[in-house]
Amino acid sequence: MPNTFFITTPIYYVNDVPHIGHAYTSIACDFIARYKRMSGVETIFLTGTDEHGQKIQKAAEKNNISPLDLCNKNSKKFNDLTKILNLSNDDFIRTTEERHKVGAKTLWKKLLASGDVYLGNYEGWYSINDETFYNEKDLIKQSDGSFKTITGGPVEWIKEESYFFRLSKYADRLIEYYKNNPDFILPQSRKNEVISFVKGGLKDLSISRNTFDWGIQVPDDEKHVMYVWLDALSSYPNSLGYITDDKPELKKYWENATHIVGKDILRHHAVYWPAFLMSANLILPKRIFAHGWWTNEGNKISKSLGNVIDPVEIIKDYGLDQIRYFLLREITFGSDGDFSLTALKSRINADLSNDLGNLCQRSLTMISKHCDSIIPDGKNINEKEKELLDRITSESERFSKMVNEQNINNYVKDVWEIIGDANKYFNDNKPWELKDNNVDKFKTILYVTADIIKQIAIMIYPIMPDTSIKILGLFSINEEIITLKLINKNIENIKINEVKPLFPRYE
């Protein structure tokens, strides 16, 4: 496996403020990036904002400000969110930046040089909401005869001069690529949708617009601006200087790239994007993973229903690591899920406060009270205890495999199984009954439990980094970089710091 890794969120569209879906994607990418770094893999994590297109121009006009002012205002909110979510992103790219514009124009020139771009006239359905062209068969006909997209947005019939990309030319090559690279698109259900779409026939794609001017000008034809998706997709390699080849030292990261996207933009990433890259004779990303959508208490999230979940507010109410845990644990990554306050409180109380919090509180407080805060040695452990202590190390390949396959919620579940086993070990051995009549066994139980807690703290670092650091701090483990190697760190005879409750309970 290559020792470099590049992971991206979608480049978020700035016509509005961030919502829980943006937070979910970003936290999932952060989880993967943190685990990769823990494993010793050189990792770059990119996020950013998509700032061109007709939807931005219309939103700016509605607010009586310039498109750039709107972009500056909303892009800052997305950038601020990276700090609020405690993301470990290495870069934040904006499509209004010069480094991006240069890269996007370079890609255009490569497509033109390949013979895959020509001037024609576009006539058909267009969704401003999705900034996407639609075939009528892919739209939902309404009772009044109008059409809407699958996301419920309106479409309008447009006719204008446009540059086209010969997408139809790449149908067979795409199918062959999907066949030869079975893990290129995940999960499997989404891959099947993409294959079905491509086999249904591809039409050449309009890649410029000339009825508005908020975009990157087409090289040598200032009447046209680049289609916003061609523009935005190029931001991923542009962050590395790959298309322009002005940062050759970063090229190695692009060779192992993973894009995490919502299922609503999978087609753009799994059909249009690889076709563009094939045409330009550039390397394709290794993985496109499409996750599902969230509902709110069983209802579709929408402004009209007034049930949009503000990630900033929900974090203020329940805590960042609690929200990170809930989003990563609650649903299978790739499936749809429901955001319920009842489920959130239940997870916090049962999984965090009871399972993890009480395990730390009960066992480490016992060390403070009865061992002068010094962790006992482990010289008297038996085979079963050794097996318990070696479990995470022995299952390390399985944990890595889950992360490599974006099987996030099962990673979290498996860590919590270990927490459950640690609680069972502690409860079954009843150290509180041994402290006076079997001191050696008493100390062994406390050592084993403390060492497992240390290992758990490392494994939860990608999920809840603040909580991980807080627990490791109890053992005076204050390394700037958390790595899986710390699992084997000897904590015998270390003095633990003051133990405080980790998670409040919610009624």
Task: Describe, in plain words, how this protein is organized in 3D.
The protein has 507 residues and is of the alpha/beta class. Helices cover 46% and strands 17% of the residues. It folds into two domains: 4-292, HUPs (Rossmann fold, 3-Layer(aba) Sandwich); 341-488, Isoleucyl-tRNA Synthetase, Domain 1 (Orthogonal Bundle). The chain contains 18 helices and 18 strands. The protein has a six-stranded parallel sheet, with helices on both faces. Helix 2 packs across helix 3 and helix 11 (311-318) packs across helix 12 (320-330). The longest helix has 30 residues, at 341-370. The chain is elongated and about 90 Å long. The mean pLDDT is 94.
The rounded Rg comes to 26 Å
Characterize the largest beta sheet: strand count, sense, and whether it forms a barrel: 6 strands, parallel
Average pLDDT, to the nearest integer?
A: 94
Oligomer: single chain
- Write out the CATH superfamily name of the largest domain: HUPs
Give the secondary structure arrangement, pairings included.
Elements: E1 4-13, H1 20-38, E2 42-50, H2 54-62, H3 67-84, E3 91-94, H4 98-113, E4 117-127, E5 132-134, E6 140-141, E7 147-148, E8 156-165, H5 171-180, E9 185-186, H6 188-199, E10 205-206, E11 208-209, E12 217-218, E13 221-226, H7 228-233, H8 235-238, H9 251-254, E14 257-262, H10 266-279, E15 287-291, E16 294-296, E17 299-300, H11 311-318, H12 320-330, E18 337-339, H13 341-370, H14 383-394, H15 396-404, H16 408-429, H17 439-459, H18 465-474
Parallel strand pairs: 1-2, 1-14, 2-3, 9-15, 14-15, 16-18
Antiparallel strand pairs: 4-5, 4-8, 6-7, 8-10, 11-13, 12-13, 16-17
